[in-house]
Amino acid sequence: MKTSILDRQFSKSKGEVSLSLYAFLFSEMVQYCLNNVEQSQQLEDKLHEVGVRVGYRVLDLLCYRDKANRREVRLLSMLSFVSQTCWRALFGHAGDLLKGQDSELEYMINDKSLLLTKFISVPRDFSHINCGAYAAGIVEGILQSAEFPCEASAHTVEESTNPPTRSTTVLIRFASEVVEREKRLQNS
Amino acid sequence: MYTLYINNRHGSLVYQKDFLSDVKLTANDRIRLASTFHGLSAIAAQISPVNTSKRLPFGFLQTTGISLIEAEGFRIQCFETLTGLKFFAVASSTFPAVILDSFLKQVYEVYTDYVLKNPFHDIDMPIRCELFDRAVENLFNSIKGLG
């Protein structure tokens, strides 16, 4: 008997989707975005925009699945929720959470082999583009709907090892009120 | 093994890679060679005395055409996919055919991964994918010692 989507277990999460399917779907999505922008620079913005909407839903879903419908209110535990729980649910492994060096408003999530860009080689004339912008959009969506206003952007980090490896870093820049609130919570 | 070629289903060269540095062919020569092979393969299928494709059930799914050309000192081995792509390699005649065949199939596998799943690649156009290049090189390095 065929079960409808409503009858299915809500908590099941491991290995439901094949990697090829995921990669083809993402590839089509990038092509769709590419066809819908006038300049190639806008591609990242478009992917980001799509990602944000995914992020809103990811927060709801994962709070329900993993946290018994609670969500974090402290900055660091929220960030580790994003880089561990969310990353594992979305991309199959955890990301590395790093603190920005210049500003206390900045944090980074680094992923050495982002699943999204696993099969994508960016041509030379598009070299500034990182399809991880989609992941950055998701992060921004999650944090914003959890009441942590921020901006997230994806950057490619090249390491000159042999063979050269590329990793993707999502840079998160919080609005100043987030850090102020965090300090108030710490003192109380 | 000397060179790997990939033809698209219309017979034009989309990818080519030399594994030896002393192969001296210009870009035009390579394109000519690749399309000549496509033409020969199509003719070979036409004049073949056995026509398997009509007799067998699902015979239309069977590929026709050249799979191997043996020559003095070298051989050209071809793997044709159901979608009409041709992967063929020029190798010395001492190179084991079984290994070459599995190499071509593995190249097809990495093609489906790194070329077809790449949103910046247009189908039937020349392949310019860094990750694909690297994967083919890795494959070659893994069989290099066996030949």
UniProtKB/TrEMBL annotation, chain A:
Species of the source: Vitrella brassicaformis (strain CCMP3155)
Subunit structure, interactors included: Part of the multisubunit TRAPP (transport protein particle) complex.
CDD domains (alphabetical): TRAPPC5_Trs31 (cd14943)
Biological process terms in GO annotation: endoplasmic reticulum to Golgi vesicle-mediated transport
Protein name: Trafficking protein particle complex subunit
InterPro entries tied to this protein: NO_sig/Golgi_transp_ligand-bd (IPR024096), TRAPP-I_su5 (IPR016696), TRAPP_component (IPR007194)
Localisation: Endoplasmic reticulum; Golgi apparatus, cis-Golgi network
Superkingdom of origin: Eukaryota
Span of the signal peptide: none
GO cellular component terms, semicolon-separated: endoplasmic reticulum; TRAPPI protein complex; TRAPPII protein complex; TRAPPIII protein complex
Homology family: Belongs to the TRAPP small subunits family. BET3 subfamily.
Gene3D superfamilies (alphabetical): Trafficking protein particle complex subunit 3
Keywords: Endoplasmic reticulum, ER-Golgi transport, Golgi apparatus, Transport
TrEMBL record, chain B:
Principal cellular location given in the protein's record: endoplasmic reticulum
Keyword Ligase assigned: no
Record-level GO BP terms: endoplasmic reticulum to Golgi vesicle-mediated transport
Origin: domain of life: Eukaryota
Keywords, ordered alphabetically: Endoplasmic reticulum, ER-Golgi transport, Golgi apparatus, Transport
InterPro entries: Longin-like_dom_sf, TRAPPC
Localization of this protein: Endoplasmic reticulum; Golgi apparatus, cis-Golgi network; Golgi apparatus
Any single Gene Ontology cellular-component annotation: TRAPP complex
Record note on quaternary structure: Part of the multisubunit transport protein particle (TRAPP) complex.
Family label: Belongs to the TRAPP small subunits family. TRAPPC4 subfamily.
Designated name of the protein: Trafficking protein particle complex subunit
Annotated organism of origin: Vitrella brassicaformis (strain CCMP3155)
Organism lineage string: Eukaryota, Sar, Alveolata, Colpodellida, Vitrellaceae
